[in-house]
Amino acid sequence: MKKIAVIGAGIVGITTAFELASLGNSVTVYDQNSAGAEEASFANGCVFSPGFVTPWVAPGLPKTLLARLFREHSPVRIGGLGAKELAWISKWRSACKMDNYLVHRSQLHNLASFSSDVFKDLTNRLNLEYESSKGFMVLYRTPDEQRNASRILQTYKEMGVSFLEITAEKARKLEPALNAETAIHGGLYFPEDEIANCRQFALLLKDECEKLGVRFEFNSSVKPLSPTQPTVIQTQNNSVKFDAVVMCAGVRSAELLAPIGVKVPMLPIYGYTLSAAVRETIDAPLSGILDDRNKVTISRIGQRIRVSGISQIGGSPKAHLHGAFNTLYKVLNDWFPGAAKTSENVQEWKGARASLPEGIPLIGACRVPGVWLNIGHGSSGWTLSCGAARALSNLIDGRLPGTNLIGFGMSRLD
Ligand SMILES: Cc1cc2nc3c(=O)[nH]c(=O)nc-3n(C[C@H](O)[C@H](O)[C@H](O)COP(=O)(O)OP(=O)(O)OC[C@H]3O[C@@H](n4cnc5c(N)ncnc54)[C@H](O)[C@@H]3O)c2cc1C
Question: Domain of 254: which CATH number?
Answer without folding.
Answer: 3.50.50.60
